[in-house]
Design brief:
By secondary structure, this protein is an alpha/beta fold. It is built from 19 helices and 23 strands. A hairpin with a 4-residue loop joins strand 10 (130-134) and strand 11.
Length: 520
């Protein structure tokens, strides 16, 4: 039992609460709560600090985020040479046979406005295999040694992806060809990455995630499933994981279902969530599938990584086993293809919570189709920081006017927020600020201000809406009696703070199941 007093509770008028056996058991005045405890009960005086439900990152890659934190982080690089220098500085620390792997560069922030290339990476090393991935995860650049070990050359082709061996560029479905050559993952290497990733999540007040992990580091989804299940059984998880399941083939997905897995199998530390499909690329890499060419690259329209027929086969199989499908679909063409499938599969009211991940390049007609189907939406307001400066240039002002429609979606369907980490660092405070302002923090650029969310809408997108998309609103996502005692303690209330000051709020403590998992 733990008692917390002198708090400002989000969405409640009380000032104190009691936690028993990992759940909220009572809320009331300081006097009411103190009257219910004995001399041995731990009492925590929060001294006027704010308490919000534990934040929920509804779409991320927890395992990949943990590995990102172990590898070379490139988001701060502002030129090709700075990227090469950062990689070269890590060479001496590599073990024999280890690859030099980095992620997070954004060529739009480089002085040259160009991608690094094979020739530049070869100057770092021709003996050590090197692979660096763009921040979006949809474009990789590798050196000659990496291509050699992966058996990739100018004759190699792949459906739903592109390879430019001369420059060392790999896009979309070509990336897994390279990853097959990486050193094999082990149970311990996966466990270590999960521990690293969840520790960082806890620092941002996050206590639950919708996480796409099965293919993040390996195509052996069974190994990842086994490790996460064991960690949950041992009580090693400090975030609740709702697994968004990807598979290398529909045959492997069928084996998963035959083994008795489907949505809601598991416990409240690790639970199977929806099937996750990747149907196109990213806006930043110009691989998101568009109806019309990119305004700043008329020769490109992006491309689908799955056909409509394949999307239908996967989604129908999932639905036959009462498993929802959520689809990564960034371009308007990809969104349309997915909606065509969902219109044939989704039951009235969408009881399974089939949905869209990202909700970026959308036409007004597509937004109305999403409303009519009552689809679940998983968006990332954090993308506004990097995408606001390029959106109109990339797709034109007319298309941009209906893009990233987060407020519209939040007012008519279940729309939950997330980071897509390691694409973005999972800073919920920054995500809330960007959802409210729609103005980049790194450039003088903004998106359609009519889509600015209110403070309550933005906070709820990181709390109760995520729980609803996980079918878990009766267990977490709110400060409610009987719910798990998952909460974050902040130095002041978000809802009362000017949007521009939200990122300066300090997260003092993160609690899950009534136990402190992070403390400033």
């Amino acid at each position: 039992m733990r008692a917390f007093i002198n708090a400002k509770l989000y969405g409640r008028k009380e000032e104190a609460f009691l936690v028993e056996d990992g759940v909220f058991s009572a809320f009331g005045s300081n006097e009411e709560i103190q009257s219910r405890i004995g001399p041995d009960t731990e009492t925590v005086d929060l001294c006027g600090a704010a308490v919000v439900p534990g934040f929920i990152d509804s779409h991320c890659h927890l395992l990949g985020f943990g590995r990102f934190l172990e590898n070379v982080q490139l988001s701060s690089c502002r030129s090709q040479e700075e990227l090469y220098a950062k990689l070269k500085a890590r060479l001496d620390s590599l073990a024999p046979g280890e690859w030099l792997i980095g992620r997070g560069f954004n060529e739009e922030t480089f002085a040259e406005k160009r991608y690094p290339d094979r020739q530049g990476l070869d100057r770092v090393s021709t003996e050590v295999p090197i692979a660096v991935t763009r921040m979006c995860g949809h474009k990789m650049v590798v050196n000659s040694k990496a291509l050699e070990l992966a058996g990739i050359d100018e004759t190699t082709t792949v459906e739903g992806g592109t390879i430019d061996a001369e420059k060392g560029f790999l896009e979309e479905n070509a990336i897994p060809l390279l990853q097959k050559a990486w050193p094999k993952e082990t149970e311990e290497s996966i466990r270590r990455a999960v521990l690293r990733g969840q520790k960082e999540m806890n620092r941002y007040g996050i206590t639950a995630v919708g996480s796409d992990d099965f293919l993040s580091l390996t195509d052996d989804w069974r190994l990842v499933l086994d490790v996460l299940s064991k960690m949950a059984y041992r009580g090693e998880l400090t975030v609740r994981i709702n697994e968004q399941c990807e598979f290398p083939s529909i045959e492997e997905f069928a084996r998963f279902l035959d083994d008795g897995y489907t949505t809601d199998v598991g416990d409240d530390l690790f639970r199977i969530g929806p099937l996750k499909l990747l149907t196109d690329g990213s806006l930043g890499a110009r691989t998101a599938a568009l109806f019309e060419p990119y305004s700043d690259a008329p020769e490109k329209r992006g491309y689908m990584t799955m056909s409509r027929d394949d999307i239908r086969r996967w989604a129908q199989l999932a639905a036959d086993y009462n498993m929802p499908t959520i689809c990564h679909a960034i371009g308007d063409l990809a969104v349309s293809e997915v909606l065509d499938v969902f219109e044939d599969i989704v039951l009235p009211g969408n009881p399974l919570h089939h949905g869209l991940v990202h909700c970026q390049i959308m036409t007004p007609e597509e937004i109305n189709r999403v409303k009519a189907l009552n689809l679940s939406c998983y968006f990332q307001s954090l993308f506004i920081d990097d995408d606001a400066p390029i959106l109109s240039e990339r797709v034109g002002a007319e298309r941009a006017a209906s893009c990233y429609p987060f407020r519209t979606l939040s007012e008519c369907v279940i729309a939950s927020n997330g980071s897509d980490a390691p694409v973005e660092i999972p800073d919920v405070r920054k995500g809330i600020r960007l959802a409210m302002t729609r103005r980049s923090m790194s450039a003088d650029a903004a998106m359609n201000p009519a889509e600015c969310m209110s403070a309550v809408q933005a906070i709820d997108s990181y709390t109760v809406c995520g729980a609803k998309n996980f079918f878990a609103e009766d267990r977490y996502g709110t400060l409610s009696e009987g719910s798990y005692a998952d909460f974050a303690v902040l130095d002041r209330p978000i809802a009362d703070c000017p949007a521009e000051e939200i990122t300066s709020i300090r997260i003092l403590m993160t609690v899950m199941n009534g136990e402190t998992v992070a403390e400033l």
